[in-house]
Amino acid sequence: MRRTLYLSDLDGTLLRGDETLSPFTIRAVNELAHKGVCFSYATARSAATAEKVTAGLRLRVPVIVHNGVFIWDLQTRRRLAWNCFTPGEAAEISTALQAADVLPVVYTYSGPDGEGRERFHYWSDPVHGMDGLFPGLRAFLETRRGDPRETPTGRREGLLPCSGENPGGLTGEIYYYTCIDRAEKLAPLYERFRERFTCIFSPELYTGAQWLEILPRGANKASAALRLKQLLNCSRLVCFGDAANDLPLFEAADECYAVENAGPAIKERATGVIRANDRDGVAKWLLAHADYA
Fold first, then answer.
1. Range of the structural domain that residue 142 is part of
2. How many domains does the chain divide into?
3. Is 149 helix (H, G, I), strand (E, B) or coil?
4. Distance between CA 101 and CA 91 in Å, rounded?
5. Among residues 37, 55, 156, which one has the least CA distance to residue 103?
6. Do 78 and 223 belong to one domain?
7. pTM for this predicted structure
8. Could you list the residue ranges forming a coiled coil in this record (predicted)?
9. What's the DSSP call for residue 254?
């Protein structure tokens, strides 16, 4: 029997404009999962923030988080597949960001799988706290208040990898940099690193703040989707999305659908255009067309 993996982006696609799931989408997805439909999501969010906004979903298959850096098992809370920077790559990126006076949010993973801990690190002014940060970065961090992964540092060197010269630096595996600053500061860094790493340079969906995200080479939604398809022994991949970071995923899919609120580039590449995220487009398409295992 043909088995299909259905994979949806979250923000702007499965989630409504207020970053929530509608009761209709929750009921529909849970009903389909219970009947054996192989449904998951692929998101730029971390596992922690993705689980928060998808509360109520009872998914039975792993999910893709951090734009494809991790395939994450929701039941065991373990990484099934992952990409991280080498120590040399992390040192180069961190040093370049510091030289450009860009203060990133740096994500690390420490400890054995199943017992490891994710952290995100950022600089906080010892006197003024987050008031000294770029407004877009400060707004992002305000949404993460109270997150157990939050790890501020009062030393800018604290955002560099640990070394003999910098014993107080970051430890563990570095796997993601989020930079939120003026576009003219971030653009040269994007040009510098875009050929060697996965880089996403675009305004943030909800605030319009300019972001530069730097991921390990080979880390993207498409490669993670194909790996998850293999892990689940699926023969087809059907995807849903709305934004430029979904284009590689669309290229890898057998069928791909853009929500009505998506940008022109992704609509042009799509197999078809479905109802908007605020009108339960993904859930209604799945109810009408999904294959049961």
1. 87-215
2. 2
3. coil
4. 15
5. 156
6. yes
7. 0.93
8. none
9. S
